[in-house]
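Complex 532.
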Amino acid sequence: MSLFVTSRSYSLENAADIIKNVCLQVNRTSNKRKALFLTLGATVALVIRSVYRLFRVPRSLRHLPSVNVIPLALSILKNEDASTRARTVFASAMKQGNGVFVVGYEQVVQATNQGNSFLFLVERFPKRLEVLSASHEESPSIKYFGTNSVGFVSGESWRKQRKVMNPAFRKSMPIHMFGSLTKRSFKIIEDHPGRQVPILPYFQRVTLDAIGIAGFGFDFGAIEDMNSVWPQTYETIRHGLFSPIVLFPFLDWLLGYIFPSHWGKLNGAIDKLNGLLMDMAKQKREQLQASVDSLTPENEKDLLTLMLEAELRGEGSASDEELQGNLALFFFAGHDTTANSMSFCLYNLAVHQNVQSKARDDVLGVMGDGKEDILPTTDDLRQIPYLEMILKETLRQFAPTPTLMPRSCKEDTDLNGIFIPKNTPIIVELDALHNNPAVWKNPERFDPDRFAPDGENQTRFQGAAWLPFSAGHRGCIGLNFSLTQQRILLAMLLRKYTWRLPDDSIHRDGIKIGNFQNTTPASLVIEFHPRY
Ligand code: HEM
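Predicted structure with protoporphyrin IX containing FE bound:
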């Protein structure tokens, strides 16, 4: 969801439309050279204008400290991690503004531990949909997610959708399914030469099958089949959506001209995945209409069943577009975030072998050290709190959603004693909050003990300082789902393997971030060694 950090561009839509119209003339006019010249001229003017606006803080926000865009851009280009960026780019503005500061133009970024102000922001103000709708209608992100899914809407529409979905995430977690998938996934590790495994694709396959079965009652078959159409198509979309060239959605249409094959491939993959998801929903709807599934108890129904049943009762999705947006959102949010988080977790334990050993000792103490795969029970997990401490610390360091979607300040607001004028877009910058030295002691250090019962997280803070899933009513619906799956994956991997970074790893001198929009490790390979 961090994808929408590109909100800077929304107010440039008129200029983009003008250039687009000029561009269309290229195909119509007899004087093609002249039209081409006009197009280029208008494009350069637009780029200069947007660059200028990136540096200019509007008068109404000049009372706030601002972050210089050049070091920020350089830090992103250098693939720096969040803690380095917090130190080198955000630190001074964060300190001066008590956590409230401006980045670029018209953006207030909040990175604070002042308790209520966070919840105040995310619950009171609506998500800023202009970020989506100002993009051209052919914008790939709009094409994929739509604008009506539960993650994007606010007010009554949000309440109605979330009420239908909540029961699917409040029932007890599918522990056995998570365990079985993990066990099946060991074959992927065994099949890699030298058990050197590109770790993100590995976790993506396991987590995709989990959301498929638990969320949609559908087996994507990603673990068993390397070439399954689902992960393959999704990979094309992920690669396209998070490539730096889509940082400027107002230029989507132009990029389509400049990179036609990239655009064609991306749009083709989006059409394909959306089509597959809607076919899956159609089949399920037909089953429900034929009452095939009527024996499933209410509290065991998957998310898709709940959504379709509500639709059949006339209380569900207002349109096919809303259903499609929700399927796309759950497909993406339901697995990519968890896969990224697990990848960073394995990295952390590869470079902190002492933590890996301690975690393994705890797991073996509860689950035994036999030479066979064992699926943990809920009770087992409860007895190994260290796993959750490791996962929480990893989520602090590498929040998979580094910023929340922008909110629109609907009225003049006082934030930590600082005046924020009406209509200012506000972004909660989780990365900066989690790596703010005024909030966390030595934030660059990996230290799971922060989350011990008497650790820093419990004793130091009054307000919310750990927010990878956001919080409150608008918090992540999949928090328990994700954390439970992560604990099971970690417990079973610790029992079966030890792991390290290969000698030639590009991460030996520190982690390299592959994508800053949804924090991803760059080409991370983990080398596993079997224990039995
Ligand atoms: C490590 C894993 C995950 C992280 C860090 C994460 C993070 C977040 C965050 C920060 C938000 C709030 C976004 C905002 O307000 O702008 C959010 C919302 C959401 N997440 Fe997650 N998420 C994770 C896993 C999941 C999973 C497994 C699912 C589904 C099974 C999921 C589904 C959603 C949905 C549907 C929303 C929108 C909720 C709403 O607006 O009512 N997420 N997530």
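The pocket of protoporphyrin IX containing FE is lined by residues 1, 122, 150-151, 162, 211, 215, 329-330, 333-334, 337-338, 341, 400-401, 404-405, 468-470, 474, 476-478, 481-482 (CB under 6 Å).
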